[in-house]
Amino acid sequence: MLKNVSGSFLPAFLLTFLVVACLYGSVSTLNLGLWGLGCAALKWAHCVRARFWLAQENPLNLNRIYQEFRLLNVLYGAVWGLLIWVGMYQETSDALSIFINTVINGVAIATLILLSPVPGVFSAFIWAEYLSVIPRYFYLGGITNYSLSIAAVACVLILQRLVRNIYASLKESFDLRHENTGLLELLTQESHKTKLAFKEAVEAHLAKSRFLAAASHDLRQPIHALGLYHELLSRKNTAPELKGILKSAVTVTQSFSGMLDALLDYSRIEAGAVQPQIQTFKLQNLIDKLEPEFAPQANAKDLYYRTRESDFLVASDPALMELIFRNLISNAIRYTQQGGILVACRSKGDFVSVQIWDTGVGIAESEQECIYEEFRQIDNPERDRAKGLGLGLAIVKGLVGLLGLRIQLKSQWGRGSVFSVLIPKSQADDQVLQPKPIKALSEFGKIRVLAIDDDAFVRDAIRQILFEMGCECDVVANLNEAKVSAEKQRPDVILSDYMLRENRSGIQAIKQLREAFGAGIPAVVITGDTSPRVFHEAKEAGIELLHKPLLPDQLYATLTQAMGLKVKAR
Length: 570
Prior knowledge:
Blueprint: H1 2-6, H2 9-23, H3 29-55, H4 62-81, H5 83-87, H6 94-115, H7 119-140, H8 143-187, H9 194-234, H10 240-270, E1 279-282, H11 283-300, E2 304-307, E3 313-316, H12 318-334, E4 340-348, E5 351-358, H13 392-403, E6 406-412, E7 416-424, E8 439-440, E9 448-452, H14 456-469, E10 472-476, H15 479-488, E11 493-497, H16 506-517, E12 523-527, H17 532-540, E13 544-547, H18 552-562, E14 565-566
Parallel strand pairs: 2-4, 8-14, 9-10, 9-11, 11-12, 12-13
Antiparallel strand pairs: 1-3, 4-5, 5-7, 6-7
Helix pairs in contact: 2-3, 3-4, 4-7, 6-7, 6-9, 6-10, 7-8, 8-9, 9-10, 9-14, 10-13, 11-12, 12-13, 15-16
């Protein structure tokens, strides 16, 4: 907890500044200024005390640390709860009210990540926050506010249960790790216990994998739903003066989502839960796949994004290579203010060198040895450090080592950088992964979608998204309800969350539905699990895969591709 809190000041300060900037001019300047100063001061006190205790070699008074941070989080939670008193009144617009509630709930989710190692401290924060919020709903009155007060109580109870589950999994993982350490020490003395030690090690590894899978799904689920609701709001006719507020709310959600993805990907690599699947594929297919995602990001910053065509075949894991390129290209765009980014492939003997060039600020020679360290972000005022946790290059380093590849860096301060990843060539033409053929589509509205998700908020959002796309849809909570729906009318395509109730996976559910209603039904699985295991499991089952948080345009394109169709230009 202390390590999490110690490095959280800058994101928290930027969020506070963003809220003040968005509310400025709409509420009392004095009240808003006092709230912002109080929020920043309390977070600063958190970080100062956390670093103080981390500096102690053997802090024996653990009860004092616990009581101190519980008190600080009571105050910090209360201040965030007071935001609703500062910004929400009877005459407050719907968009501004949505923004304030989104920020308050988003802070609760982010704090869950920071304080999950100590559930008592998180409980102090969450109750202090919502006990400040609930009276405001009653004060404002009306059926909507009374409903929000009930929802707030439910949110507190759900988050408390979630943090207890995460803590229990984390404690179990730590306990198993310590047991394994003891077994390894005993192994040097008693060789006949080798089998027992190996069994315990496997159990510990599985426990870590289960914890990461549960954390990946449970933590991404509320952010996934929040992103869908934001997208729905953005499609409504919103007053021009409120579009900026909605855009800021989307930015906050994307920031949370990006940090969470980085943490989970890094944890999975550290836990050894990533197993590469080496195969031959065309490198250009992977580069073309990333261009539609990153070219608009570069264009939004007035940067050019270029790629050079090539026909190289390489032998590696395409899912892990995509994650490596995604982090490198994302960093290049983030740290480049003018000029652009170039992705190119060059032959170097038995290897292909994939190079990501940028015209950013560059990396000083003294910093080039340490940029791959976790949570490392170079102290450069020209870089946008509001996004990310400094884990991108640490993830790249871990994956490069796992795949047995090499990565090189050339950079000149003030001129830019080029990262080169050397991948083995392959000549196995008959084993090349070929993209699926895609045909044309005249109308989208004739497709009937059967969607399965155990989260009520996500079901509601998906139902609205599919309705706006013109689909006929039935959204259910589990496999039994899906079978009942399919018996009434066979679906054209199945859309399922990966983790369902009763320890079922969406892939298992789709297989059973196909056995009952036709093996040729196209299907798509949505998951927050970024492990290659899920990628290959879906591929073997002939199921398209989408990762959370999901955007409606991604869903539209993937649904049509799952049916062997191509979205017609809109």
